Amino acid sequence: MKKASLYKLFTISLRDILSAYGHNPLVRGLLRLLFAIPALRFALFMAQFDREIPQRGLREASRKLLRRFYRGVTVLGEKPHREGGLLIVANHPGVGDSLALLSSLERDDIRIVAGEREFFFALPNLLPYLILVPEDPSKRTGVLRAMVDDLRQGKTVILYPAGEIEPDPFLHPDESFLKPWSPAIGLLVRLAQQGGFHFRIQPAISAQVLPPHVLGPSYAKKPALRNTLERKAVGKIIGLGRAKSDSILLVWGPGISSQSLSGLSASAVTDKVMDETIDAFHRFVPIGETAGLLNRRLGHPLQQDRIGT
What we know:
- By secondary structure, this protein is of the alpha/beta class.
- The protein has a single domain, classed as Glycerol-3-phosphate (1)-acyltransferase (3-Layer(aba) Sandwich), CATH 3.40.1130.
- 45% of the residues lie in helices and 15% in strands.
- The chain is built from twelve helices and nine strands.
- Strands 1, 2, 3, 4, 5, 6, 7, 8 and 9 form a nine-stranded mixed β-sheet that branches.
- Helix 1 (6-18) crosses helix 2 (25-56), helix 6 packs across helix 7 and helix 7 packs across helix 11 (266-284).
- The chain starts with 5 loop residues before the first helix and ends with a strand.
């Protein structure tokens, strides 16, 4: 069994945590000492996660890692089919959203589309589950081909169509919480039609990955600082365990057959899927509701499950 590189995981984690605190050499030097132990703690968790993937499977390893940082995940909505080609399109508020997805997904045939980052190469047992997207756009032709091949074989592909971190829906309840999504969804539908096969598309929305008490009171009072405070909150969660009393919310939208989207342009397919995704989330969380109101709505008649508590 291959071993994760603890040194690489530590140095990358420490660098990422410090990136939220400016460039003053003196301040960064002091913070480097302060955050060394939290970064090492996170690196040890990730190395153990990678070690457990061959032993326990990706789903169980993800559940265990999720509980290192959060209480668990509350799941609402229509769970994905356990068989057949499945494209999961998800928002990406960061930190625990991928772990929430992997923990609740009752399938083992998973491929995750992810940006080509140094961090992933330090996790050799996770790598086979990834379809890495090179930074150079001219080198990305193989990504779409790999996704098509997996869907044709009846596997599960997880795609974050925004290609970047998106707002946490609970922090932006009156705004669109999705950034523009890639037309890759529509291209996959078209290629499936040309290849004579079809698959299901399942929207997934994660929320409450950045709990308000971790962000602090300044988040509501100083909008100009929100981006910095969100980045600092990530360090508090992964390094200090500040969200261990909180659960992530995961809402599954209704599945969409790729056949039902035939005849639409690639951009029109993506727009339709985005609309379905937003509508699915707001069936549980009406626009303008706060997290407190949401907690009183979790008895919604659609499916509810709790994982990791």
